Amino acid sequence: MKSYTRIVEEKQHLRFEEMEDAANQLFAANANVMEIANFLVALAQKGETASEVAALASVMRKHAIPLDIPEARYLDNCGTGGDGSNSFNISTTSAFVLAGAGVKVAKHGNRKISSAAGSHDVLDGLGIHSNFTTEDMSRMLEKEGLAFIFAPVVHPKMKKIGEARRKIGKPTIFNLVGPLTNPVPLLTQFTGINRPDFLMEYASVLRMLGRDRAIVVSGAGGMDEASLAGQNSFVLMDKGDLIPFTLTAEDVGLVHAPLSAIRGGTAEENAGIIREVLKGKRGPRFDTVVLNAGIGLFANGMAGAIKEGIGIATDSILSGKAFQKLEAVVSFSAEIEQEAVVR
């Protein structure tokens, strides 16, 4: 590890194979927390490359606990987080809309890191617990076409790395790899980063990791979601081609709104917002969700264009299918908890 740290401190990029070796050392049982921290700080100061991110993500997936699920065109719509917008849980809400529209969604996530309520904090608020086993997650995905993949359960070897990240207290390469380490084999993905300068590189990481089709967004106002507040920058990765494009709310028939219109709060407050949106309450929150779900449908290939995807997403909510999906997952969660009590 020290030799790789010295290379990085000299502002030299690691080749894919070198980063793979370094990553395996990060996950080793005898890894030293301070050495991990020094390496991560040096990487952040140098600036991570697409190859370094892809190598770390591939190693992290190999160390994850796999899920026993049938082959399908699964989608993850998890973003990197850390955009500081204090919005409600847009991608979690969109996951119910996507599943209501028939997309098979395996959403990777964690508890709060930089927001008031992370995806699994708000799931608790909705009545969906996060102490599922990998078998429970597999059953949920097969039964409901939607599963929330709780990162600490599927990535049990992160303890020392977590200690190092807490010591550092600033973003590291692990902030970038979160959406890339889902143990479910993904053919499609819609993800966001709040670093427009790294947009093309992030899309190339998804290509290296074997996605068939994916979209990366860096949203207006620094969001890691598509925003109503201005011009959003995207890269579509389709069968190896990287295609940049931009989009505003007005381009797809929606209304401009400031970031303040989609602010969230505590897990319980955000759970209330999610229920309101999924019951069809119109406004900037509704529009933000159908915009992001529409892009997810386009990324998955269920819509031929983003505007068409927004129409399908809107129907998923107004038909009641998205809210029914929420209720079904809440019921599934209660059943699993009851089974655990009986055992």
UniProtKB/TrEMBL annotation:
Pathway: Amino-acid biosynthesis; L-tryptophan biosynthesis; L-tryptophan from chorismate: step 2/5. It holds the Pfam family Glycos_transf_3. Anthranilate 1 binds at G79, N110. The lineage of its organism: Bacteria, Bacillati, Bacillota, Bacilli, Bacillales. The keyword Metal-binding applies. GO terms for cellular component: cytosol. Gene3D superfamilies: Nucleoside phosphorylase/phosphoribosyltransferase catalytic domain, Transferase, Pyrimidine Nucleoside Phosphorylase, Chain C. Residues 73-322 form the Glycosyl transferase family domain. The gene is trpD. This is Anthranilate phosphoribosyltransferase. Homodimer. The keyword Metal-binding applies. Its EC number is 2.4.2.18. Residues 6-64 form the Glycosyl transferase family 3 N-terminal domain. NCBIfam families: trpD. Binds 2 magnesium ions per monomer. It catalyses: N-(5-phospho-beta-D-ribosyl)anthranilate + diphosphate = 5-phospho-alpha-D-ribose 1-diphosphate + anthranilate. It comes from Sporosarcina luteola. Belongs to the anthranilate phosphoribosyltransferase family. In the C-terminal section; belongs to the anthranilate phosphoribosyltransferase family. Its cofactor is Mg(2+). Anthranilate 2 binds at R165. It is an enzyme of class 2 (transferase). GO terms for biological process: L-tryptophan biosynthetic process.
